[in-house]
């Protein structure tokens, strides 16, 4: 569903964000009936509260939105979205109370609060539409909302309807929408074109593995995005227990997120050359499954000992990264729902990222804070390189011991980037409990931080 701002209108109901420290002053500024109505509704300015006040004719005249206090606001984001979800249908316009530096993120949160996943069950948005506040880039915020909606829709779709072929169709549709070029390499052709690890991971499924390749833009620096597209992960022969398999429709969350980011970039017509690579597979179980102790040879010639078939994401990414690095892009980024270790380290709300570029890291951290898209830098710790070297082959896809699992996975991927300027995001891609502007389900992470950081990173 489109997530867009309402057209400016004199009929839009003004919305006043109220800090709890200003509640007495705010109520004193209202006429007596409205102040009495706010008090009767128990409005205190606490986060998430909403009160719609009427004029003498019984028409909506003012909406109060609880904005908490500075301390409570530090513990979350998209604070107005919680109030927006409680307002009746109609057009609304912010009329004070939101700091200028927070206007863009609050407006984005309001748009995202309208998101509903309706493919299998109807669920209309609440209809409280916001007029774009003055001083924000409305087109950019709408592009971010549309990109996030695409990411959520792709992740939320179950694997029965979102296998490698369907992910390919979604990528092709995005290419057609923005006049991009699209190519895919399918099945045995992956071997002919030297993508052996993508083929090995996906060959057990009747749904043919493939590499998706989208290109857009004719001039400017090159940004290449690589997204893990494991449409369902059984774990392969190292079969996951049922409790760990239940959310594996989201294992293509990296692919969904780079497609959402690509949509933002193309909609905003950033002056760059964009390439999106997605290895799309289903890690299944059959007589064709790759096995523990197999040794695979990657596109770039490195050999990989398989010590766990459930560490398949880094294998398919490796071939795609090796292809990306052959062009020496100005910036190479991978995004993947890669390791449980990342979740243990930072939880579901932070997107850990790795890069050797200190300037890029600082830009991403600052951009994430400004875009309400929190990210956290993790280290490419050189001392752990030996952990991913098994002795019998160049690399080990699942080192024993369990220490530093996210770091060793990132170090593994870096071996396939040929020294390119590189950043890797180990995302969760899922909102485990509903929060303002973020229903339970698929969620993009890191895309808005990258969108904000890329112009400086590429000198645009």
Blueprint (SSEs and pairs):
Blueprint: E1 13-18, H1 23-29, H2 32-40, E2 50-54, E3 60-66, H3 70-73, H4 79-84, E4 90-94, H5 103-112, E5 128-130, H6 138-156, H7 164-178, E6 181-186, H8 189-192, H9 196-202, E7 210-216, E8 222-227, E9 229-233, H10 242-245, H11 253-267, E10 273-283, E11 295-297, E12 303-305, H12 313-325, E13 331-336, H13 340-346, E14 351-355, H14 358-370, E15 375-378, E16 395-396, H15 405-414, E17 422-426, E18 430-431, E19 441-442, H16 447-457
Parallel strand pairs: 1-3, 1-4, 4-5, 8-10, 8-13, 9-10, 12-16, 13-17, 14-15
Antiparallel strand pairs: 2-3, 6-7, 7-10, 11-12, 14-17, 18-19
Helix pairs in contact: 5-6, 6-11, 9-12, 11-16, 14-16
Structural summary, described in words:
It comes from Poseidonocella sedimentorum. This is Leucyl aminopeptidase. Keywords: Aminopeptidase, Hydrolase, Manganese, Protease. Belongs to the peptidase M17 family. Pfam families: Peptidase_M17 (PF00883), Peptidase_M17_N_1 (PF21337). By secondary structure, the protein is an alpha/beta fold. The chain folds into 2 domains: 13-136, Leucine Aminopeptidase, subunit E, domain 1; 142-457, Zn peptidases (Aminopeptidase, 3-Layer(aba) Sandwich), CATH 3.40.630. Helix content is 33%, strand content 20%. The chain has 16 helices and 19 strands. It has helices at 23-29, 32-40, 70-73, 79-84, 103-112, 138-156, 164-178, 189-192, 196-202, 242-245, 253-267, 313-325, 340-346, 358-370, 405-414, 447-457; strands at 13-18, 50-54, 60-66, 90-94, 128-130, 181-186, 210-216, 222-227, 229-233, 273-283, 295-297, 303-305, 331-336, 351-355, 375-378, 395-396, 422-426, 430-431, 441-442. The strands form 4 sheets. Strands 6, 7, 8, 9, 10, 13, 14, 15 and 17 form a 9-stranded mixed beta sheet that branches. A 5-stranded mixed beta sheet has the order 2-3-1-4-5. Strand 14 (351-355), helix 14 and strand 15 (375-378) form a beta-alpha-beta unit. Helix 11 (253-267) packs across helix 16. The longest helix has 19 residues, at 138-156. It is elongated and about 80 Å long. The chain starts with 12 loop residues before the first strand and ends with a helix. The mean pLDDT is 96.
């Amino acid at each position: 569903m489109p997530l867009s701002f309402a057209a400016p209108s004199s009929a839009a109901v003004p919305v006043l964000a109220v800090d709890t420290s200003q509640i007495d002053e705010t109520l004193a500024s209202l006429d007596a009936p409205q102040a009495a109505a706010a008090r009767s509704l128990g409005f205190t300015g606490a986060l998430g509260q909403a009160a719609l006040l009427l004029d003498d004719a019984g028409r909506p005249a003012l909406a109060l939105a609880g904005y908490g206090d500075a301390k409570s606001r530090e513990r979350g984001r998209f604070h107005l979205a919680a109030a927006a979800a409680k307002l009746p249908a109609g057009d609304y316009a912010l009329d004070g109370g939101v700091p200028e530096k927070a206007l863009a993120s609050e407006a984005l949160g309001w748009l995202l609060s309208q998101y509903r996943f309706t493919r299998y069950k109807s669920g209309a948005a609440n209809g409280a539409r916001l007029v774009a506040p003055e001083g924000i880039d409305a087109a950019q915020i709408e592009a971010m909302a549309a990109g996030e909606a695409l990411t959520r829709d792709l992740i939320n779709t179950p694997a029965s309807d979102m296998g490698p072929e369907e992910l390919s169709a979604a990528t092709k549709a995005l290419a057609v929408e923005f006049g991009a070029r699209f190519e895919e390499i399918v099945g045995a052709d992956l071997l002919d074109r030297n993508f052996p690890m993508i083929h090995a991971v996906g060959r057990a499924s009747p749904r043919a593995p493939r590499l998706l390749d989208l290109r857009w833009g004719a001039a400017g620096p090159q940004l290449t995005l690589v997204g893990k597209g494991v449409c369902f992960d059984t774990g392969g022969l190292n079969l996951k227990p049922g409790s760990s398999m239940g959310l594996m429709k989201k294992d293509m969350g990296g692919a969904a997120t780079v497609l959402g980011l690509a949509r933002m970039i193309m909609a905003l017509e950033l002056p760059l050359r964009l390439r999106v690579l997605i290895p799309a597979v289903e890690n299944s179980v059959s007589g064709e499954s790759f096995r523990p102790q197999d040794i695979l040879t990657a596109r770039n010639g490195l050999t990989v000992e398989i010590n766990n078939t459930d560490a398949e994401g880094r294998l398919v990414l490796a071939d795609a990264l090796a292809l990306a690095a052959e062009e020496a892009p100005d910036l190479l980024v991978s995004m993947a729902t890669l390791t449980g270790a990342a979740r243990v380290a930072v939880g579901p709300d932070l997107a850990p990222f790795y890069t050797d570029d200190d300037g890029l890291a600082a830009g991403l951290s600052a951009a994430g804070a400004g875009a309400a898209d929190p990210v956290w830098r993790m280290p490419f710790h050189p001392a752990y390189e030996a952990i991913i070297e098994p002795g019998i082959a160049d690399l080990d896809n699942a080192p024993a011991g369990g220490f530093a699992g996210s770091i060793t996975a990132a170090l593994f991927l870096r071996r396939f980037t040929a020294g390119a300027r590189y950043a890797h995001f180990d995302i969760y891609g899922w909102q485990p409990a509903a929060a303002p502007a973020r229903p339970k389900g698929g969620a993009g992470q890191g895309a808005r931080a990258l969108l904000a950081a890329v112009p400086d990173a590429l000198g645009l």
